[in-house]
């Protein structure tokens, strides 16, 4: 109804009406701008060990909200708390940057579920959860691939070459899982 009314008007009036509609929507939406609102949540990340990574979170509000990060429900320590930290808080907190993802047999401080918390004097808003996981082959897939390559080689070449290749492949598998690289 409003649409057809709008389109039967002369151009000048149509412009005026559109401008009024625009102003009302703008005023309407800015009235809720005091509380923090998350406008971009972090997304799931699959990262290689020792590689850098980042999680993003954008929020708005008035006053501009402070952003803090949580991992598995615990506040994340960054370079703001400890200058030696491998996690840096950039762009006023909206970027959590990992210099490298630490992931060894005994130390897994980075994988987990993250969210950001945007807070100002009026309240706080929480982002969606994003998981940070290690990318790449699982141990079994890795072993399976090596055995498969072994078999491919062995059906084509003399036995001693086959043994040589397979022993190398399996040695590498064993060593790399031992050293956790
Ligand atoms: C996000 O993760 C936290 C802890 O890891 C959990 O308590 C919370 O329920 C999750 N929130 C959503 C929306 O899934
Ligand atoms: C978000 O931060 C505020 C202020 O530090 C805190 O009171 C609140 O508990 C936090 N909420 C979550 C779910 O982490």
From TrEMBL:
Domain of life per record: Eukaryota
KW Aminoacyl-tRNA synthetase (keyword) present: no
PROSITE patterns cross-referenced by the UniProt entry: IG_LIKE
Aminoacyl-tRNA synthetase found in the keyword field: no
Pfam families attached to this UniProt entry: Ig_3 (PF13927)
Xref: SMART domains: IG, IGc2
Keywords of this entry: Immunoglobulin domain, Membrane, Signal, Transmembrane, Transmembrane helix
Ig-like domain mapped to chain residues: 36-133
Transmembrane segments: 143-175
Position of the signal peptide: 1-32
Protein's recorded name: Roundabout homolog 2
């Amino acid at each position: 109804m409003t649409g057809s009314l709008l389109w039967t008007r002369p151009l000048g009036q149509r412009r005026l009406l559109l401008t009024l509609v625009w102003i009302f929507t703008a005023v309407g939406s800015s009235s809720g701008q005091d509380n923090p609102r998350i406008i971009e949540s972090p997304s799931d990340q699959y990262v290689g060990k020792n590689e850098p990574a980042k999680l993003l979170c954008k929020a708005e509000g008035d006053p501009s909200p402070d952003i803090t990060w949580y991992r598995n429900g615990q506040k994340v320590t960054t370079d703001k708390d400890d200058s030696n930290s491998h996690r840096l808080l950039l762009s006023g907190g909206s970027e959590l940057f990992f210099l490298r993802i630490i992931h060894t047999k005994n130390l897994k401080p980075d994988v987990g579920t993250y969210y950001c918390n945007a807070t100002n004097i009026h309240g706080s808003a929480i982002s969606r959860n994003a998981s940070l996981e290690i990318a790449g082959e699982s141990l079994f897939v890795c072993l399976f691939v090596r055995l498969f390559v072994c078999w491919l080689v062995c059906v084509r070449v003399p036995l001693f070459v086959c043994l040589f290749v397979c022993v190398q492949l399996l040695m590498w598998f064993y060593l790399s899982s031992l050293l956790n690289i």
